[in-house]
Specification:
This protein is α+β, with helices and mostly antiparallel strands. The two termini are 33 Å apart.
């Protein structure tokens, strides 16, 4: 019998575009939130299985203000100084609040595990200050810039019910409408576990 039958983290299905939970402003939690440590472990396992660098609780169906980041894949690009800076950036953000942002907005092509196979240019400020609780429930107030700030802003959007596609102009949104509908119906190929809100149930033979 496997030693981790009851202890190993689980890979959870990632909620796809079209599920109402992704458009809902999430709720704060307290340190007594049931199963929080297990949930965080499961979120990391799920994120790694999908080869992501960030994951928010609404993406696994939990409308709570929790997201995780592990930017180590960026560190594999040793020719990009900004990427190297975030090679060791791994953190848990609970009840986060961005208290300030600054700098001239810059463009970066973003994607999202809940919106697979779509990547678009999104403008974000390069510097942020954020207040949050870490996994040990220690209150933090830190400043981040560059890729770290962008990843945090992307995941922070999720707990506010905002998707990266909401930042696109109306023309681009219309151009993506069909692809987004296909995602919500599960009419795509993806190599990680997902939950599609409008997928038709499979017929039993």
């Amino acid at each position: 019998m496997s030693k981790c039958l009851f202890l190993c983290p689980m890979i959870l299905p990632i909620v796809a575009y079209g599920d109402p939970v992704l458009k809902r402003e999430a709720d704060d939690i307290d340190r007594e939130y049931e199963g929080l440590d297990t949930l965080i472990d499961n979120m990391f396992e799920t994120m790694y299985a999908a080869q992501g660098v960030g994951l928010a609780a609404p993406q696994i169906g939990k409308s709570i203000r929790l997201f995780i980041v592990d930017a180590s894949p960026f560190g594999e690009d040793d020719e990009d100084p900004e990427a190297v800076k975030v090679a060791d950036f791994k953190e848990v953000f609970i009840n986060a609040e961005i208290v300030d942002s600054a700098g001239e907005a810059w463009v970066f092509r973003e994607g999202c595990l809940s919106i697979p196979n779509i990547r678009e240019d999104v403008k974000r400020e390069p510097q942020i200050k954020i207040r949050y609780y870490n996994r040990n429930w220690e209150l933090q107030e830190k400043e981040f810039d560059g890729y770290a700030a962008r990843i945090i802003q992307h995941e922070y959007d999720h707990i506010d019910g905002v998707l990266f596609t909401d930042h696109l102009n109306p023309l681009k949104k219309r151009m993506l409408k069909r692809k987004l509908q296909e995602i919500s119906k599960g009419e795509i190929k993806v190599d990680y576990k997902m939950k599609f809100p409008q997928a038709k149930p499979k017929r039993r033979m």
